[in-house]
Amino acid sequence: TSSRKIDIFRMLTRLRDRFPQGAVFAIRRGNHVFIGASPERLVTVNGRKITSNAVAGTSRPSDAGRKSDGLALVADPKERHEHALVVDSLRSVLSPICENLEVPKEPELLILSNMQHLYTPLTGILDRPLTVMEAVALLHPTPAVGGIPVGTADILLRKLEPFDRGWFAGPVGWMAASGNGEFFVALRSA
User: Fold this and answer.
1) Cα–Cα distance between 160 and 23 in angstroms, integer?
2) Considering 28, 60, 138, 181, which has the largest number of Cβ atoms within 10 A of its Cβ?
3) Could you tell me which of 7, 25, 4, 43 has the C-alpha nearest to residue 188?
4) Interval 70-89: pLDDT, tens
5) Using an 8 Å Cβ cutoff, are 120 and 83 in contact?
6) Could you tell me which residues are beta bridge partners of residue 24?
7) pTM, two decimal places
8) Between 21 and 93, where is the model more confident?
9) What is the helix (H) or strand (E) element at residue 51, kind and residue range?
């Protein structure tokens, strides 16, 4: 909350400049604006091609050097385990609806200006037409923001989390009349 007017366009421009790898968004509802820059693509549907990104396992790069920090993140058993849970969850949802699903065996390092993450892109060819909204319904929430198993984690989050997330961690994106589109997980937001 601010006592003075916030220049949303200027803020979006600064976010785009600082986080060029992600999706920058602003959604206005009445006098409120939800704004952010998310590095995590939930899903893209383009014709029969579907893509989702597992982004889990996080550290802050030190000023000393990103390469060694990245190697430590890649080697960290806890972070690798959390990342594997997200990859396995996405694979279990996408495999039954894809003729072919490509999942790299090892995660890559996604280096952002203020964070780095373990990252695995999953790309498939759908075995039937599917709109991006249908794909969002299948994939949201990912274990990275909602936990697993999904039903149990959802109940526990509602019971134990001391605040309402609002739109945080929800899907934000676009859909064309064809059903194609792209959605991101609304992180790094205000």
Assistant:
1) 30
2) 181
3) 25
4) 778 888 999 999 999 999 99
5) yes
6) 37
7) 0.88
8) 93
9) strand 49-59
Which whole-number Å values give the CA distances from 78 to 72, 88, 123, in the listed order? 11, 15, 25
CB-side exposure of 160: number of CA atoms within 13 Å?
8
Q: How far is CA 185 from CA 125, 129, 162, in A?
A: 22, 23, 21
CA pair distance 52, 182, nearest whole angstrom: 10
- Residue 118's Cβ-count burial label (10 Å; 0-12, 13-18, 19+) is buried
Q: Using alpha carbons, select from 162, 131, 168 the residue that is nearest to residue 146.
A: 168
- β-strand partners of 182: 44, 174
Q: Where are the alpha helices (DSSP H) in 19-115?
A: 66-75, 77-94
